[in-house]
Amino acid sequence: MRIHLTAGLLVAVILSNGCATRPASPGRLVGSFDFALIGDVPYSDEQVTNLFPNMIAEMNGERLAFVIYDGDIKSGASPCSDAVFQERFRQFQTFRHPLIYIFGDNEWTDCGTGTNHFDTEERLIKLREVFTAGDQSLGQRKLKLVRQSSDAAHAKFRENVRWEMGGVMFAGLNVPGSSNNYGKPEFAERNAANIAWLKQAFAVAQQDKARAMMVIIQANPIPERGGTNKIHAGFMEMLEVLEDETVAFRKPVVLVHGDSHYFRIDQPLLGSKSRRRIENFTRVETFGNPDVHWLRVSVDWRDPNVFRFHTQYVRKNLLKHQR
Description:
By secondary structure, the protein is of the alpha/beta class. The chain contains five helices and 15 strands.
């Protein structure tokens, strides 16, 4: 196996509910800015009508450059209907900040199983139609995005995006859990597009002398340390490319994902040749159902680590624990 993974050190996590700095303007090299990471909500009726709106309201009161949503806009058991898509689109438009949405498995690859009987590829087409119109983000304040569909060779892949801010390159890819839809007819073309987009994002980051890179997907591609699971074939090529590009980049690289609903920050990637931890690579998994909270990321290109992560617990969503 070419990729080697291990659990790593918890890095730069700060428990904080402090104020953020002013948002940066795209393309402008500023000293610092903050943004938010969320995903894997809302799942239940209570989350749809109460907990998720609580989180949106809290984030709307903060100074954030943008919000990144790393997939799963509903539970796997809930309908993959147009009505659900439209309901979530309306909720996304209540965000005061730009919202960048990365597709998850619950809204398309899992829509042909269980109580859902939808054509999964048709649902992917519908997601693109509802959520990826134009070259701007969702949310009330817009952020201009570069879409992979601007390249005629990858015209259908509107969901793959990138943008730059404050010396950092951000790249979003359609890599859904739990196995990247591996073995299905559409996999090979989408995986090839993802690999091309990932390489291009790193190339542009090198060209622009970016201080850091953040890659956002939905799936958790990294098996637990000590477990019996090996890296799934659906993620192998992506992880190989990510290792090669991270080593060549030689600056901080962060992989953000959701999927397994376990908040963590670690450094699980080992070099294929050195079999040692790749020090400039960090993995961040966002909060997810049943925890309806968010993660603040502070960016400062003058800091050697560039990124600092702060857990943000929504006060109205805190559980009253019993003993």
